Amino acid sequence: MELCQWWRHIVVFLLHAWIPSCFAQTTPPVRLSPTPTPQTAEGPETLKFRLSGFPRKHNEGRIEVFYKGEWGTICDDDFSLANAHVLCRQLGFVSATGWTHSAKYGKGTGKIWLDNVQCSGSERSVSVCKSRGWGNSDCTHDEDAGVICKDERLPGYVDSNVIEVQVDENKVEEVRLRPVFTIATKRMPVTEGVVEVKNKDGWAQICDNGWTPKNSHVVCGMMGFPHEKKVNKNFYKLYSERQKNHFLVHSVACLGTEVHLAACPLEFNYDNATESCPGGMPAVVSCVPGPLYAQSTVMRKKLKMPSTIRLKGGAKYGEGRVEVLKGSEWGTICDDRWNLLSASVVCRELGFGSAKEALTGARMGQGLGPIHMNEVQCTGHERSLWNCRYKNITAEDCKHTEDASLRCNVPYMGFEKTVRLSGGRSQYEGRVEVRVGQRWGSVCSEGWTTKEAMVACRQLGLGFSMHAITETWYWDSSNVTEMVMSGVKCTGDEMSLSQCQHHRTVNCQKALARFSAGVICSETASDLVLNAPLVQQTTYIEDRPLHMLYCAAEEDCLSKSAAKANWPYGHRRLLRFSSQIHNIGRADFRPKAGRHSWVWHACHGHYHSMDIFTHYDLMSANGTKVAEGHKASFCLEDSDCDEGVSKRYECANFGEQGITVGCWDLYRHDIDCQWIDISDVKPGNYILQVVINPNYEVAESDFTNNAMKCNCKYDGHRIWVHNCHIGDAFSEEAEKKFEKYPGQLNNQIS
């Protein structure tokens, strides 16, 4: 028995080691066969659970239950994260990170065993959760539920918790384009080549007899390209005649809407695979890259990005929360009925390939403003999301906790091969090293900021930058390389550090190893936004006596002319308003500085954890500051939170500072320094601007929504404020009208 158990361990280990990793030139979704997990007996019946569907990773999929000798699914009615926690534990994972509805991983077959499942999350088995009972359901397989489990096994799990991968010799998991032209093998991305699929014997070809543009469309989508184009087959025919081909597949019949070749009807060769393509040749595909990946400047200019749809909050290109422009205002999409077909339409419209994942439940953070679309239903053939069926919604239909997001297939560029981290304590941190010429070397940390660190983490595929490190002496320095790059200056949008500005020859004043640039990366980041309507509602003018402003003067909250005033007589004219700063990201906003360096402010009776957290400015229409910019330093805490979210941070008693996801920090209009000193401002039309985290001191998933602007009119006695909005909330045309605002002719705001 012990020998049998030992062999069982060996077989499982070999199977896991054998499963192929994704091919270096693509990032296709992986389609695994159903993965049963034997479980303990539940009364007289033995329950088994497995993850099925495609495309998916090993820790996610359609949840299926084996009951009374038959596999079946679970309906998504009343499904919750608590249900997913229970099911993931039964699958051998520690917990769930999410769940899916509307058959995201494809429709199952057979029974729908459970419906209206309601677990508390602590149950040992889904069988003891509330439900309608086994086999009692009013659902169709369009409503099959799926789970996303945390990729971490239960401690001490035994074989019964191992997902046993059943190897099917005719399964298509990986697909690649193999370039044939010499010049094409050196250029990234690979846009044309022989289509090859991987099976147990290695890479094999597909016979092109009956090959259609729809098949090419699916392959290009997997490779990260939006469209296919006609290919010149003459050269490839000559090439194939000189090669020994192995045809695994002799017939493919895609509809063109599939997100993976494995979803198309395929006919496999069972006999002599080298002689099974009579009169044909290996299938060849040529793809058209999107504007971000076009290989020539002319093509990049010709292929423009759409102006009515965008992705926000993602760490990488081709992922994020979906936002659409309706009228002149950007808004989100509700996740009801959100699926891979609709997500693929968005991905291709944006110049990427088909969708890898259609994400629900604000997985890429919550948006702001209106929710423009609900129950989007695309066929997969549409050129734009606006051509799909959808419903307009009311405020009762959806909330931003249901914002839809996605991940697209993007072309493989090989950028991660030209950067690495060294010396860190985990794969997410370390000194940044790059390929310059034929040698690896470190990067000078002079001018190294969050923007440069963001690019490095994106290039590494490690998400966002949590910290940009300029002194790396505390990391292992046993293998420190010499500096090979300096003067790095990024906008933050680049795909790799090599695309940023940098010195042609290394010029670093601090060339010691301890001053090498480093990063600490994170899969998630915070995202701060200001409540613009609240600013508009709470703005007013106060003439405050000087004898009440000593504390404010000490904190530099007044303009320079206040120093020449006849203290304590007279007053200062203050433009007051409330600031309510929300964290809508996926990680808490924490100050960069440690507690040891926080500054005690006796006037306010608390510590300030950031020197400059916001800029308050009053500007003329051409952008000239008319009131000296007040740079406010805050004590960061959770003033209040969304329903179901608990406060974590408070300033009192030297408490931890920060803003929790789903919470906000409120600085009321009636507290010290919550103003702009306009004592020296003349009557006129101005722009009120507030910028959060202006120096990018703390990493966020989106910096474009950190600024808020308002039009305002000041007549010397009163002020009128309107059109308050977040910097990226309007269309470009609407923003231009705002900036060219000629001023009000009267005090009536229409």
From TrEMBL:
Top-level EC class, please?
Answer: oxidoreductase
What is known about its processing and modification? Answer: The lysine tyrosylquinone cross-link (LTQ) is generated by condensation of the epsilon-amino group of a lysine with a topaquinone produced by oxidation of tyrosine.
* Cofactor(s) essential for the protein: Cu cation
Q: Residue span of the signal peptide, if any?
A: 1-24
Q: Where in the cell is it found?
A: Cytoplasm; Nucleus; Secreted, Extracellular space
The UniProt similarity line reads:
Belongs to the lysyl oxidase family.
Tell me where on the tree of life, at the top rank, the source sits: Eukaryota
Give the keywords, sorted. Answer: Copper, Cytoplasm, Disulfide bond, Glycoprotein, LTQ, Metal-binding, Nucleus, Oxidoreductase, Repeat, Secreted, Signal, TPQ
Keyword Glycoprotein among record annotations:
yes
User: What name appears for this protein in its UniProt entry?
Assistant: Lysyl oxidase homolog
Catalytically driven reaction(s): N(6)-acetyl-L-lysyl-[protein] + O2 + H2O = acetamide + (S)-2-amino-6-oxohexanoyl-[protein] + H2O2; L-lysyl-[protein] + O2 + H2O = (S)-2-amino-6-oxohexanoyl-[protein] + H2O2 + NH4(+)
Annotated source species: Cyprinus carpio carpio
Segments forming domain SRCR: 49-150, 175-288, 309-409, 419-522
Which GO molecular-function terms appear in the entry? copper ion binding; protein-lysine 6-oxidase activity
One GO process term, biological-process aspect: collagen fibril organization
Cysteine pairs bridged by disulfides in the record: C75-C139, C88-C149, C119-C129, C254-C264, C334-C398, C347-C408, C378-C388, C444-C508, C490-C500
Q: What does this protein do?
A: Mediates the post-translational oxidative deamination of lysine residues on target proteins leading to the formation of deaminated lysine (allysine).
What EC number is given for this enzyme? 1.4.3.13
Please provide, in alphabetical order, the Gene Ontology terms of the cellular component aspect for this entry: cytoplasm; extracellular space; membrane; nucleus
Kindly list the organism's lineage. Answer: Eukaryota, Metazoa, Chordata, Craniata, Vertebrata
Q: Mind telling me which Pfam families this protein's record contains?
A: Lysyl_oxidase, SRCR
What InterPro entries does the database record attribute to this sequence?
LOX-like_protein (IPR050912), Lysyl_oxidase (IPR001695), Lysyl_oxidase_CS (IPR019828), SRCR (IPR001190), SRCR-like_dom_sf (IPR036772)
